[in-house]
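Quick note —
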Amino acid sequence: MTSTTKFSPTADTKTEVITVFQGHPTFSCANCAAVIALQDELISKAFSGRDGRGYLIHSAVNLKLGRREDRALLTGVHTVADVYCMGCNDRMGWYYHKASDHTQKYKEGKYLLEREKLVKENKWKLDD
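Predicted structure written out below.
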């Protein structure tokens, strides 16, 4: 991993794409190709986003948080914040701050990223 930032990874004040993962399979922004997450951080593909299927991800980079709000989702009310790509400001999904139902607490501190907003980068190398 290469990082070129002076900000904390959770700071809402980031203004530039700061992290890349060389040689590792990643998910990138479909609009601007900024790296968003390592594929190893994927928890589940069985989630629903606003615009279709979504991925639950342990951690992500190159995202900025929007305003916290209580939102009624399919599994109940959650406190979430939309997340936006640092490269192009496209809305990528949301971050789970808090779940009201005890059965949904496992989502807290995780990201729901919209599948249609991501490109899967496999980093395969072909022998010459």
